[in-house]
Amino acid sequence: MKKLAMAAGLALTMGMSATAMAHPTNSGYVTDSGDSVWRTGFGGCWHTGFWSQEDATVEGCDGYKKMAPKAAEPAPVAPAKAPEMMDVSKKFAVFFDFDSAVVDSVSNIVDYVNGLQKVNTIRLVGHADPIGSSAYNDALSKRRAENVAAALRSAGVGASMNVDYMGETAPIAQCSGRGAELIRCLRADRRVDVHVAGKK
Which of 47, 50, 111, 169 has its CA 20 to 30 A from that of 157? Predict the structure, then answer.
């Protein structure tokens, strides 16, 4: 009976030897021909005679768990490029009553200036119609330009302004009437031209 048991044990050992082999990447574990680690009856992994604690690198054996791959860091986002500003310019005209330097409104000029990213220049040129002496019209056109500049500053326009005047020397109206009709026709000459240049 004893000889029979020894023979059976020997046969079992030989059968294991025929199919057991070292783990393909870790010589500390025993695998079958399909590279699966052999398990004990208690779920543990079979060790070879060369096993050491440093060999505990097989998933599910001796408490080893494979570390989850580190998530890739998101690629840095390039900052949005600021839109380039464009050079812009616009001309306005402020008109006056006959023999007057009282400014009516500059709101349209103020709105335009406030809509710019940058103001480069504001140039004001005063004009007068030809009724009256040249000296008087020079002084009147100067007061008109200065009053428009003051109105713009009062409305919050802080940019520097170049103020000039031309009297009656740059007419644009073509009139041939007399009296009140002539005064009405010459309204286009009673003006201040405002040239605004900047970036938007």
Answer: 169
